[in-house]
Each structure stands twice: as structure tokens, then as C-alpha cells.
């Protein structure tokens, strides 16, 4: 099964969950998820949307709204459309630090102008965000104006925007993202795309998942329905990762039952669910359910703020993780077998 097919299956699973009280996936929420997935998949950078807003602006209004000293990336789109993505200095610094040092320092960012090197390091991430946004909106009418945009170049100053971009209406999305473990730093992002859609319309599909214009008999014996039921009924193995620590090989070989491995402060309060190949799925908080270890998923910035500290949440200081006899991995446990880097994680299977 290809990655695009997997994305389609995941989207259908998400669509099925909306009937159980879930909210519709709006473009601004999809953009927040796209940033989270791109950060986690590309550089293991936790990104959580603290707030998201959408609206319409003229080009002059966009120029006045841009964050000061932001990296302004121009985006090429369908029909010669041009958009822009602006990364505030805090957001840009988090991307650069994660690629160079492997962590977000959390210190105050010194004011400076973005350079060509900054743009080159941010360009793959920007392309990945726009690609993830396309996947999330693959069956939404918003794909007409949100799809097909990729990084083209950057400008050092916003003043030439009036010459480079059309003086027309734009759909503008403003996000505040918490970057790094425990939200070490908060950075702003602004995305502006032409309001007039020039991309392709998503194909209309019937209840069986077939294109509406498919000929009669294109789905013999309900093959699509049976295939969908089989795929959605398959078991999926997820890892609930508390933290990852790097140890010398000698320390790993010396691990025994009762040994202690120190994880970072706040690790218990923010758990990442990962699928095959460490692919980011969701974020949550560690807690308990009927005496068992559980993970409460953060569905949205508003819901995440209401969760608070769950039962069995993070305590003061750096929590300790103890090795379990037999190498069985449990929530909050590290196995003493394998490589020099191991997640403190809990493994579960869902249908």
C-alpha cells in the first residue's frame, strides 16, 4: 500500500469519527495539523497550534500584518498564482536549532534579518507543510485554492510584495505554534493564498468511495465497500512515546532490572502517539483509566487547554524511568535491550 493510499485511509477514519461528536476539519485546523506532522516527521520537532485564525485581506493589509523580521517565502501555485508564508523569528529559530543542535533552546531570539541560508533550510519544511495540507483537504472544496503551492523563493524585505504579487483578495491564516518540548518557545506563522481558486476541484465520490461519474458496474460485487471494511478493520499498532534519550552503548549494555534512566522535565505531561516508522499521529497527556495507564488525546487547542493535569500526570522535577524485567515495554518504562536510543513508551493496538 502506497503512502498516498495510507493517507486516504487515515482521512476516511477521521471522517468516520466526526459522527461521534467530532468537529469538521476546517482549513485553519488542517494547517495546524500539517505543521505538526511536518515538524514531527522531518525533524522530530513538536509543534502544537496554540491558536489559529482565518480571514480575508488585501495585499496592503497583509504587508502591514507580517511579523517583524520574518522570513517571507513566496509560493508558486496553480494558474501562476503566488502566495506567501511568513515565519516569525521565533518560529524560524526553532526550525534552525532543531536541524543544527537537535533541540529548541527556549532562550530569547536575537533580532536579525533572515538570510539565504535560513531560507534554504526552511524550504523543505515549507514544501512538506503545503503537501500535508493538500492531503488533509483532498476531499474538501478548499483544495481549489489551497492545493498545489510550493516554495519558490524568499525576499528580504516586504516592500517589493506590491510588485511581485497581485493586488487582489487573499485568504489569510495566522497561527501561533508552541515549538519544542513543553512549548519551549512560541512562534507566529502567516499564510496568504489567492482567494480566487485556480487549482483542481476534488473529485465527487459516492457512499462507496467511487467517483460520481464512474460507469455502472465499476465496483463489481461491492469490492470497494468490502476492501474499505477490511482495511478500516485492521489492527494498528501505536507507540505512546514519553521521551527519547541518547545513551552510550556501554550504558545500554549495563542496563539491568531496577536501573534508572532520567528523562526530561515535563516529558510525562506531553505524550506523542507514533505509528510505523515513527510517523506522527497525535499528541496527548499521560493519565489513568480504571486503574490502567492511558493517554488522553489533545483534539484541538481549546480542548487541550481544558485537559489540565490528568490522574498520574507529571510530578515535580525530572521523572525517573525504571527498566522492567524481561524487557517488556510499558508506559513510563525503558527496555534494556537494543540500540543506544530508546523511547520511553507504551504500546497498544486498536481496531
Short précis:
Helix content is 29%, strand content 28%.
Please compute the radius of gyration using only Cα atoms: 22 Å
> How many domains, in number, for the residues?
2
Number of strands: 14
Q: Return the CATH architecture of the largest domain.
A: 3-Layer(aba) Sandwich
Treating each run of at least 4 consecutive H or I residues as one helix, how many helices? 10
The fourth-level CATH homologous superfamily of the largest domain is CheC-like
Low-confidence stretches: 1-10, 16-21, 301-351
Going by helix content, strand content and strand pairing, the class is alpha+beta
Query: What value does the average pLDDT take?
Result: 77
Spatially, the strands of the biggest sheet line up as 1-5-6-3-2-4
CATH top level of the largest domain is Alpha Beta
The string of secondary-structure elements, in order, is HHEHEEHHHEHEEHEHEEEEHEEE
What does the main sheet amount to?
6 strands, antiparallel
User: DSSP strand (E) fraction?
Assistant: 25-35%
Morphology call: globular
Gap between N and C termini? 18 Å
Amino acid at each position: 500500500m502506497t503512502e498516498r493510499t495510507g493517507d486516504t485511509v487515515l482521512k476516511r477514519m477521521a471522517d468516520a469519527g466526526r459522527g461521534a461528536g467530532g468537529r469538521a476539519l476546517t482549513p485553519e485546523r488542517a494547517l495546524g495539523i500539517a505543521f505538526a506532522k511536518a515538524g514531527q516527521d522531518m525533524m522530530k520537532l513538536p509543534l502544537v497550534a496554540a491558536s489559529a485564525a482565518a480571514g480575508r485581506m488585501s495585499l496592503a493589509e497583509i504587508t502591514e500584518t507580517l511579523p517583524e523580521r520574518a522570513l517571507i517565502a513566496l509560493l508558486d501555485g496553480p494558474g501562476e498564482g503566488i502566495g506567501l508564508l511568513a515565519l516569525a523569528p521565533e518560529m524560524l529559530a526553532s526550525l534552525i536549532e532543531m536541524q543544527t543542535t537537535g533541540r529548541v533552546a527556549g532562550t530569547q531570539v536575537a533580532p536579525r534579518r533572515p538570510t539565504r541560508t535560513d531560507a534554504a533550510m526552511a524550504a523543505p519544511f515549507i514544501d512538506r507543510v503545503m503537501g500535508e495540507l493538500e492531503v488533509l483537504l483532498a476531499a474538501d472544496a478548499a483544495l481549489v485554492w489551497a492545493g498545489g503551492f510550493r516554495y519558490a523563493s524568499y525576499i528580504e524585505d516586504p516592500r517589493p510584495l506590491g510588485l511581485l504579487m497581485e493586488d487582489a483578495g487573499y485568504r489569510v491564516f495566522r497561527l501561533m505554534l508552541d515549538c519544542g518540548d513543553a512549548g519551549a518557545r512560541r512562534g507566529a506563522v502567516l499564510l496568504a493564498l489567492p482567494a480566487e481558486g485556480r487549482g483542481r476541484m476534488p473529485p465527487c465520490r459516492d457512499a462507496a468511495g467511487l467517483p460520481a461519474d464512474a460507469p455502472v458496474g465499476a465496483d463489481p460485487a461491492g469490492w470497494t465497500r468490502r476492501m474499505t471494511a477490511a482495511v478500516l478493520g485492521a489492527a494498528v499498532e501505536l507507540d505512546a512515546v514519553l521521551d527519547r534519550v541518547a545513551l552510550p552503548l556501554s550504558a545500554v549494555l549495563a542496563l539491568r532490572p531496577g536501573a534508572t534512566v532520567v528523562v526530561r522535565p515535563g516529558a510525562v505531561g506531553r505524550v506523542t502517539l507514533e505509528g510505523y516508522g515513527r510517523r506522527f499521529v497525535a499528541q496527548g497527556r499521560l493519565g489513568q483509566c480504571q486503574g490502567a495507564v492511558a493517554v488522553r488525546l489533545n483534539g484541538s487547542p481549546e480542548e487541550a487547554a481544558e485537559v489540565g493535569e490528568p490522574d498520574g500526570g507529571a510530578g515535580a522535577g525530572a521523572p525517573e524511568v525504571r527498566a522492567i524485567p524481561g524487557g517488556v515495554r510499558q508506559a513510563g518504562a525503558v527496555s534494556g535491550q537494543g540500540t543506544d536510543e530508546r523511547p520511553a513508551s507504551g504500546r497498544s493496538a486498536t481496531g
